[in-house]
Amino acid sequence: MIKDKRDGVTLKPWNGHHRYRWRVFWPESNKRKTKGFVKKSGAGGAEEFFEKQRKRVKAQGSEDAQFSKSERLAVMTFRQKAEELLEVGEKVSLEDVVREWGERQNVSLKRQTISDLIKKYSSYLDVKAKKKNATPLSELYKQTVRNRLATFDQKYGDWMASAFNEEIIKDWLDNLRTITKRPTGAGSRGKLASRSKKGPLLSPRSRNHYRDALHGLFEYAKDEKSVADNPVAKIKKVAVPESNIGVLSLRQAADLLAACDPEFAPVVALGLFAGLRVTELERTEWEDIDLEERGTGEIVVPYLATTKAQDTREIPISPNLRFWLEPFADRTGLLVKSHAVYRRKIERARRVAGICVWPKNALRHSFASYHYAMYKDKLLVKQLMGHQTKSDTLEQHYRRRLPLKDAESFWSITPLAKGKSKA
User: Fold this and answer.
1) d(CA 137, CA 307)
2) 389-409 average pLDDT score
């Protein structure tokens, strides 16, 4: 077998190949590469390529004689990557790479697992909520963040925080799926056992929520000197498809109120006719409702009960809403005991009312749309909703154009003695 090997480059026949008769092996970027040739000599032949690669490797070896073999290969790898980056307009030097590596090594000295980091961040959320002039964080918000981070903890809990990069986190986000539980039979202590099953990929909106939770976690880690950079910062939010603004029809609104149990009807009425958020309904107390204030009465939505508004806001009680609230004028305490109670009762009312498709934020969206259709005052609607006056949230997510006659009927929905709602 005719073979030529010099300076780490090898030329030899390629026996049995269906096309090529010769091939050349040479080192490049810490890898052993090969190329096939039809002919041995002449222009474009194996010998010509062999000599070219041999001279390149030899020249590079003499230039870097003071480096070890592994160091020389590392430099060659860097040069190749630097050339690729240069093609897209980004210039980087080996000195920059070494300096950044050194900074990361210094940061990684403070070793902290994701599990430990999440525990500290969870406590930090409680402290942050109590700081002066800080945006209030509701318990529901904090628990939602903790639940999302718990999902991340399940997979990466024993990883060091400094070990993450953009690719790892993006891959995790892109593959998040819903989890459904199916009953499997009787479990311990007579309880029904269930088995978790992965469902479809999360919606773009839900994925963005998980991304935001991780961004907050790694920003905290950055402040704690557990990571040099926030790997989530460069991960863009995915586009959320625009959806039609969901508004209940007159018939649906009346049927929904009629389907509620008597204790829950005023809670739904406050959502429909005062525009309170679900989180506000769950935190507002009966004492915040004054039926005598300013003659018509008003609802004071407490600062701590809001999620976006930066102050308390007063919402006048409409004449039809007053009918729903008056029977409960002597009540005290929370309007609804918990989020679980609210969900159970609203879902039951929906089923009884025959509302198959429940629009997102249906009560609040309906309030904004019917109020604007009735009074044509965009600024007033924003104030009642707790939006900033310069915000375009109302136009983008809440207000849907409705005819005046429908608005007049909506603001006339009242309870009847027989337990039905009049529309």
Assistant:
1) 7
2) 70
Taken in order 317, 291, 313, 336, the sign of the CA dihedral is: negative
> CB count, 10 Å around CB of 363?
26
Q: Which residues of 370-406 are buried (b: 16+ CB within 10 A; e: fewer)?
A: bbbbbeeeeeebbebbbbeeeeeebeebbbbebeeeb
Per mean pLDDT, which range of 128-137, 151-160, 261-270 is the poorest?
Answer: 128-137
Alpha-carbon gap, residue 325 to 234, rounded angstroms = 49
pLDDT score of 285 more than 60 = yes
DSSP summary character for residue 317? P
| Position with higher pLDDT, 387 vs 361 | 361
Rounded (5°) CA angle 60-65-66 = 135
* Element at 350 (helix H, strand E): helix 339-353
Phi, psi at 178, each rounded to 5°: -70, 150
The DSSP secondary structure of 138-194, one letter per residue, reads: -HHHHHHHHHHHHHHHHHHTTSBGGG--HHHHHHHHHT-EEEEEEEEEE-GGGPEEE
